[in-house]
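re the bet — no i am not wrong, look at it urself. input seq straight from the record:
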Amino acid sequence: MRRLIVSSFVSLDGVIEGPMGWASPFFDEQNQAHALQALSGVEFFLVGRVTYEMFSARWPDLKGPYMDRINGLKKLVASKTLKSVGWNATLLEGDVAQALAALKRQPGGDILKYGGVAARPNTGFRRAGR
């Protein structure tokens, strides 16, 4: 049975979105090695439309052990608006929760959910820079 693993960047002061703007300086050699090790049992990389569009536009051209591993993973894209995907991806159509539950019941590597969240009013979270 596969696990669904959620990986999110959260700053100590509660910023949970836009990690490219604040987290990149901290993705040093030690953190890259840790992140690569965490990918050892992962088979699928799960993202939403926004993260997919951002990553698929840049990551296929990036090189290095961590980037090569991400590029080689099977991608799952949850979106109601995309009609097609590339970058070794499959579009999850219909009920995403049901599709993931069915995939989790199958043998194989884990599913890594990656991406940020959009801050919404009254959630207690705040956008970067506010």
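see?? The chain has a mean pLDDT of 83. told u. also Helices lie at 19-22, 29-38, 49-58, 65-72, 96-105. so pay up
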